[in-house]
Every structure is written in structure tokens, then in C-alpha cells.
Predict the 3D structure of the following.
Amino acid sequence: MKRKFLNILLFLILVIIVGAFYLTVERAAEHYQSQQIAESLLKQVSLGMPRSMAIALLEDAAWHHATCEYSEHYIEDLFLYGNHNLSLTGSILLKSELTDNELIVTFIGVEENYRLFLYDHCSSLNLAKP
């Protein structure tokens, strides 16, 4: 009887370990897919491009776009792609500065998910807790 109980207990532990491993791999795959969407869009935007043109290229595929206006001369845009879970989403950060009366892209890159809270103040989403 004791041996049967131990076998059942070991089987349950094995099921829990395999399940946890599967969930971890699945989450990593979802994050990878979201990041792939963002990285493919990065290739369409270049430094020196007008901000309006960059937004037109990035906004359609995004499920969220937050604009952070720090001054009339400097704006940051955050775009989120793929999975709607903030820990698994893909993201692009676009920074623009006013040059010759036009906002021009001065930075384009991927933002790490653990840093999304930095844009909480200018987003309609709660980015404080990814």
C-alpha cells in the first residue's frame, strides 16, 4: 500500500514538473513571436525619417500606441505588438526631435518588457505591472 502511494505521489510530481516546463516553453515561444513582429517592423523605419511616416508604418500592426510628449521639441512613442500580456508583448520605442520645424526620428529600437513601467504616465494602459 505504501509503495502504491509513493508511486502515485512520484507520478503527480512528474506531471507537475512536466507541466511547469511546458508552460515555461510556451511563454517563451509567445514572447519570441511578439518580439519577431516588432523586429520585422523595425527594419521599415530609419533614423532621419519624419515621425509621421514612422508612425504610419508602425501603428497598424500595434495593439497599443502610447505617445509621451516631453516638450514640443521631443516626443517618445511606444508601440506594443503580439501578445497582450505585458510580460510577453513585443515593443518598439521611437524617439523624435524637432528639426527644421519637423519631428524627425532620432532613435528606433526594442524596449525591454521590464522597462515598460517608464511609459506608464503617458499610456492608457497600466504599464506599472507587467
